[in-house]
């Protein structure tokens, strides 16, 4: 049996949760990862201002289906009034919690003072957390990085400021804004944060294997782990992590299971986008299909075919050809 991780009214097995990833971890992705054992999920980041101004796309990002729960809605913005209004608006979707994005390094986001720019303005960040807490009937969490750059690594005082302002838990990605996604995540810095706050800390950055996840728990003392890119084309990672946390042997996917899951993922994308014609929705499936081939022998030519997928039938043909090629080449399952 797994230990339980909880904050406020939210609880989940202490294995690993899926990270918010705009443009990647959409509903299809979240459903798939949850089905393989991801402990929880978070929405793609939602613009508080977009919601307040009635943007349809922003509202659509907030919808939650029962199978995705527990699930948080992540808001971004830099104005406490808009963040508070957005927090009040998203209550109708009954999120299990609200997460505030204070880690995004994308220029368009930080140019408005949102995302990781808030790490340079802790008092405004606190105002935002207080404003969101006031309007939310569910716990409020904050996700941030180690700081702006190497000259401003303020994750410890920032974490304390978030706790003081009312955050129920924090998620820390072990990189600075300036690092973007380069270099290695600094897990020691996550440990330092953990040692200086009383609220739960969710460790994040560079979990690619179940062993990485166990090492993250061990090295940082974190309460929960969050996995992002390691799940690309590899939702099986959540199953492997759940087994490792139980001390059970890993159940690695066979090649057949990889291809079956790739096809299931493509079907989910089509099902989750009924408003789009299939030939449009399939485009969203291309990068995902390609990720399922990553690291396998002879994958390059197949990945190229993934980027040109026009229909589900083509995806099926691709999976069949890929499996046949691996068999002919004498591929042996591990
Ligand atoms: C394509 C992509 C989109 C992302 N979108 C978000 C987002 O919307 N909100 C957020 O807080 N973090 C976002 N992140 C950051 C991830 O949640 C995570 O912090 C980061 O990828 C490090 O974890 P990893 O090494 O497990 O991928 C995004 C990352 C990627 C690669």
Structural account:
This protein is of the alpha/beta class. It folds into 2 domains: 4-245, Alpha-Beta Barrel (TIM Barrel), CATH 3.20.20.70; 255-328, Non-ribosomal Peptide Synthetase Peptidyl Carrier Protein, Chain A, CATH 1.10.1200. Helices cover 44% and strands 13% of the residues. Strands 3, 4, 5, 6, 7, 8, 9, 10 and 11 form a 9-stranded parallel beta sheet that branches. Strands 1-2 form a two-stranded antiparallel sheet. It is globular. The two termini are 27 Å apart. Residues 19-24, 44-45, 74, 101, 103-104, 143, 173, 204-207, 227-230 line the site of flavin mononucleotide.
List the helices and strands and how they pair.
Elements (H helix, E strand, L loop, with lengths): L3 E4 L2 E4 L3 E2 L8 H9 L5 E2 L3 E2 H5 L3 H5 L10 E6 L3 H11 L6 E6 L4 H4 L11 H14 L4 E5 L10 H11 L3 E5 L13 H9 L5 E4 L5 H11 L3 E4 L8 H10 L9 H18 L5 H14 L7 H8 L5 H17 L6
Parallel strand pairs: 3-11, 4-6, 5-6, 6-7, 7-8, 8-9, 9-10, 10-11
Antiparallel strand pairs: 1-2
This protein binds flavin mononucleotide.
Flavin mononucleotide binds next to loops.
- Multimeric state of these chains? single chain
Q: Give the N-terminus to C-terminus distance in angstroms.
A: 27 Å
Strand content: 5-15%
CATH class of the largest domain: Alpha Beta
Taking the sheet with the most strands, its summary is: 9 strands, parallel
